[in-house]
């Protein structure tokens, strides 16, 4: 039998090949020492940048200590899976405030269960290999946003990319349009080397963020982030942020859309991540008119379903308030007022107020145009 080091080295190569065969775009291996990130993570919590996401603080430093989460863990196999569809020109919707903008990752199937199943299969392949060739037993556990794991720091450590100033992982050949997942294992596989950061002096993501959520390089105040406000926040969206949401009703991609590295984004091979016709390029009014049954039907298997119909209406109400004045919008907002929850009502009333202001502005503009056309004084 070959030496144990050689055995694990060969096994590592096989693991990466199996990962590719299962549909992952890249597989890396990291050790479990995340101590260098503990102080920064604690500062993030102390600054209350996690907002209502109490689960971020519940387990304390366990997030940075994989062997406390799963005793016996020696290595973390980190994977990424591309989700960019072939027709990815969704940024055009940001220029059309009558249409809804939904974050690219959420237009297709929910990735959590799919990736977790693939990671489980990868673990089973390793288990079988060890049992047959080395008479060893493997203990493993897959994670995809399902436990207190510092997944981005692990992906960075495993060489899948570097941490960008927006705090997302960037890969030189793929940008940042990918999901991450982890497989905790109790065998001492050889680890991969981190890659060098290549953001340089670029601060495009920081400057473009509509709500200034990137408070400093690599640090995001979730309470200001549109993704948090439209997905994680359960209550009312603070008024100061409502006009800044524009037509973004679920998530936000602005910091990724502006990133120069995303010109190299890789198209996904997974058809389930392609946009669903019932969600892509849809008019805000059409989505706002969905009743709860329609919402549940059209978001089945989608990550959007997790916010529920109430927050769906809350988010679209804000987007309708931000849209250009339209009598059709005012009509549908007034129509919806009957029977909605207090949370939705607050946002509908705000949207109606915004639309009425725009209506008055529109009338003044029309009068001004007519006055100019007739050669009358502008205050006529």
Compile the SSE list and pairings:
Elements: H1 4-21, E1 26-30, H2 38-46, H3 55-58, H4 66-69, E2 75-82, E3 101-102, H5 111-134, E4 140-143, H6 151-157, E5 162-163, E6 169-170, E7 178-185, H7 204-208, E8 214-216, E9 219-220, H8 226-232, H9 242-245, E10 248-250, H10 254-257, H11 284-288, H12 292-298, H13 308-322, H14 327-336, H15 342-374
Parallel strand pairs: 3-10
Antiparallel strand pairs: 1-2, 2-7, 4-7, 5-6, 8-9
Helix pairs in contact: 1-5, 13-15, 14-15
Form type: elongated
Q: Oligomeric form of this entry? A: single chain
User: How does the major sheet shape up?
Assistant: 4 strands, antiparallel
The number of distinct β-strands equals 10
What structural class results from the helix and strand content?
alpha+beta
Number of domains: 2
Question: In angstroms, what is the radius of gyration?
Answer: 24 Å
* pLDDT < 50 runs, ≥5 residues: 1-5
| Proportion of residues in β-strands | 5-15%
The secondary-structure element order is HEHHHEEHEHEEEHEEHHEHHHHHH
Q: Which strand order do you get reading across the main beta sheet? A: 1-2-7-4
Number of DSSP helical runs = 15
N- and C-termini, Cα separation: 96 Å
Mean pLDDT: 92
Tell me roughly what share of residues is in helical segments.
40-55%
Function: Catalyzes the conversion of epoxyqueuosine (oQ) to queuosine (Q), which is a hypermodified base found in the wobble positions of tRNA(Asp), tRNA(Asn), tRNA(His) and tRNA(Tyr).
EC number: 1.17.99.6
Subunit structure: Monomer.
Active site: 145
């Amino acid at each position: 039998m070959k030496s144990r080091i050689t055995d694990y080295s060969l096994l590592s190569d096989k693991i990466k090949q199996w990962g590719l065969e299962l549909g992952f775009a890249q597989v890396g291996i990291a050790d479990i020492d995340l101590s260098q990130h503990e102080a920064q993570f604690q500062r993030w919590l102390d600054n209350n940048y996690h907002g209502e996401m109490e689960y971020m603080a519940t387990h304390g430093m366990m997030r940075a200590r994989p062997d406390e989460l799963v005793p016996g863990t020696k290595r973390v196999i980190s994977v990424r899976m591309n989700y960019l569809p072939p027709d990815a020109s969704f940024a055009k919707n940001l220029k059309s405030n009558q249409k809804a903008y939904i974050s690219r990752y959420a237009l297709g199937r929910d990735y959590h269960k799919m990736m977790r199943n693939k990671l489980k299969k990868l673990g089973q392949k390793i288990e079988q290999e060890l049992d047959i060739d080395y008479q060893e037993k493997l203990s493993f556990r897959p994670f995809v946003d399902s436990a207190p794991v510092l997944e981005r720091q692990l992906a960075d450590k495993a060489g899948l990319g570097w941490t960008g100033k927006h705090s997302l992982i960037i890969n030189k050949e793929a940008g940042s349009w990918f999901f991450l997942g982890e497989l905790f294992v109790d065998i001492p596989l050889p680890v991969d080397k981190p890659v060098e950061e290549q953001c340089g002096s670029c601060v495009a993501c920081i400057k473009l963020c509509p709500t200034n959520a990137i408070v400093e390089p690599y640090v995001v105040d979730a309470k200001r982030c549109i993704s948090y406000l439209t997905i994680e926040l359960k209550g009312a969206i603070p008024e100061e942020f409502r006009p800044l949401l524009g037509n973004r009703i679920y998530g936000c991609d602005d910091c990724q859309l502006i990133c120069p590295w995303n010109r190299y984004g890789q198209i996904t091979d997974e058809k389930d991540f392609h946009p669903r016709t019932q969600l892509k390029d849809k008019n805000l009014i059409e989505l706002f008119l969905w009743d709860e049954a329609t919402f549940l039907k059209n978001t089945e298997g989608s990550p959007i379903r997790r916010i529920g119909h109430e927050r769906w209406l809350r988010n679209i109400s804000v987007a309708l308030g931000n849209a250009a004045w339209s009598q059709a919008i005012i009509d549908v907002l007034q129509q919806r007022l009957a029977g909605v929850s207090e949370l939705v009502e607050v946002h509908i009333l705000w949207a109606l107020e915004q639309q009425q202001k725009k209506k008055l502005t529109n009338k003044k503009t029309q009068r001004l145009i007519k006055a100019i056309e007739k050669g009358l004084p502008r205050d006529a």
